[in-house]
């Protein structure tokens, strides 16, 4: 164990255990045990799980379920070391500063990077201010302490690998981290980081809901193991990584990780096909009184909305692509139809005000540039508009969560007689199209159609 290479992971959520840990486990299964994972967390909230996992020597059962309902159980063996949490993150510092730790990876959620809509570090955030004052409650403060100790001990290079669902996740993290160090006037470490670390972009994919108590029961019934901390996810899995590791890496390509020069085509396909269709289905399903993604996806008119959006508008915009986009679309829609993954419309409908500019507007703009009227794409913001109007009227069946929502301001806007005009002429949502009369007319007609559809189906 001592001389093996260590992949330290920060962020002991379910996703890491269903995704990255699974790939490294598969490598061990193939007889290559040159790498193992040391797992820890910046925050205290994973401590109960980590304590249980330590009692199980880092092993746990992963349950996966296919769209056809086939369940599969596997004991994951790649996590060989649990790093216990304390306020000073001592175990993370100790492990991260060891020479045999060659990759430091993390999943700390999208919000864990504290970036503004312009992708700058948000210095107004209390957590960031706390870390600037010397704490370690964000990935930035934690890495500053870990890497300072590393430089003091030997200064060997290390790859900093972001595995969160963020566009250009390596670059965005790196920009945030270097801004943090500069803000702290820690120029020595900032220069060291620039020279001695890399941050490859990655695209990660496997739907992993929070494990509910019935996972433990099913695991016990199927395997006889009374696992206190099992995880469950869909059978689909994908990981695409830019091959830019500064101090070695496991042979990930042997377990079907796609090692590429640029992750961009995969990222675009995922954001526009998977993430945007997901939101489309959640908004549409909510409008006709449905609670879950799977039941919404299999409603023929909703399935058609997502299918047409991808087929008529996204595929022409993303072609040529190294991916088989039509196949990707069909696989994604089959995954959303999985009745055994009870993902809620509420979860997926969240953050519409950021998803429109991030996931949808690029397709609208590129369609016009190609001379295509984006009728099928206009349905997505139209669905959101009607959904958002219901939110303002207090008619949604659940709380709507949106990181950039200003309750008073948005309610006032959505309840005013010219709500639609304000919405479609908003450059934050629609960029240059906010000025386009063609786009405005398209949206006015599409919103009217969607209102009628929602009325007829409710
Ligand atoms: P989870 O709720 O199980 O775990 C979240 C982890 O992040 C916890 O360890 C928590 O302590 C830590 N964390 C939260 N906020 C933090 C912060 N500000 N600073 C430092 N640590 C913080 O969630 P999960 O299912 O493991 O998902 C984590 C991330 O993985 C997602 O946000 C997403 O970016 C990525 N991901 C998840 C899925 C999925 O289906 N669950 C799929 C693809 C990608």
TrEMBL record:
Residues 263-447 form the Mannitol dehydrogenase C-terminal domain. Pfam families: Mannitol_dh, Mannitol_dh_C. It comes from Orbus hercynius. Residues 8-253 form the Mannitol dehydrogenase N-terminal domain. GO terms for biological process: D-glucuronate catabolic process. The keyword Oxidoreductase applies. The keyword Oxidoreductase applies. This is D-arabinitol 4-dehydrogenase.
């Amino acid at each position: 164990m001592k001389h093996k290479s260590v992949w330290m992971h920060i962020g002991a959520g379910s996703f890491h255990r269903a995704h990255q840990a699974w790939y490294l486990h598969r490598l061990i299964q193939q007889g290559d045990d040159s790498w193992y994972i040391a797992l820890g967390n910046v925050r205290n909230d994973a401590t109960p799980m980590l304590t249980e996992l330590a009692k199980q020597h880092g092993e746990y059962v992963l349950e996966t379920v296919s769209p056809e309902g086939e369940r599969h159980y596997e004991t994951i063996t790649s996590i060989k070391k649990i790093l216990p949490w304390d306020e000073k993150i001592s175990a993370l510092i100790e492990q991260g500063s060891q020479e045999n730790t060659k990759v430091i990876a993390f999943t700390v959620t999208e919000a864990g990077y504290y970036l503004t809509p312009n992708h700058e570090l948000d210095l107004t955030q209390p957590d960031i201010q706390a870390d600037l004052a010397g704490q370690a409650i964000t990935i930035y403060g934690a890495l500053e302490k870990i890497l300072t100790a590393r430089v003091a001990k030997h200064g060997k290079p290390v790859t900093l690998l972001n595995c969160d669902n963020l566009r250009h996740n390596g670059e965005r993290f790196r920009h945030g981290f270097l801004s943090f160090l500069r803000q702290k006037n820690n120029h020595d470490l900032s220069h060291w980081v620039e020279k001695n670390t890399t941050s490859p972009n990655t695209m990660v994919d496997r739907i992993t809901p929070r494990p509910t108590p019935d996972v433990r029961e099913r695991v016990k019934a199927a395997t006889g193991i009374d696992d206190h901390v099992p995880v469950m996810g869909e059978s689909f899995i994908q990981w695409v990584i830019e091959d830019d590791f500064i101090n070695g890496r496991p042979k990930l390509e042997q377990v079907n990780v796609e090692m590429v020069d640029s992750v961009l085509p995969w990222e675009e396909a995922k954001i526009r096909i998977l993430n945007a269709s997901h939101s489309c289905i959640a908004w549409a399903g909510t409008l006709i009184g449905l609670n879950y993604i799977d039941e919404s996806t299999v409603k023929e008119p909703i399935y058609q909305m997502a299918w047409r959006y991808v087929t008529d508008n996204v595929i022409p915009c993303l072609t040529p692509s190294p991916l088989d986009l039509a196949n990707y679309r069909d696989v994604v829609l089959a995954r959303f139809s999985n009745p055994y993954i009870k993902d809620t419309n509420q979860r997926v409908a969240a953050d519409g005000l950021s998803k429109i500019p991030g996931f949808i507007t690029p397709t609208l703009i590129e369609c016009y540039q190609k001379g295509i009227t984006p009728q099928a794409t206009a349905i997505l913001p139209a669905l959101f508009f009607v959904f958002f109007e219901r939110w303002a009227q207090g008619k949604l069946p659940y709380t709507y969560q949106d990181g950039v929502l200003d309750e008073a301001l948005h309610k006032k806007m959505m309840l005013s007689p010219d709500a639609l005009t304000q919405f479609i002429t908003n450059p934050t949502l629609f960029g240059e199209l906010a000025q386009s009369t063609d786009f405005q007319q398209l949206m006015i007609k599409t919103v009217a159609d969607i209102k009628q559809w929602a009325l007829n189906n409710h």
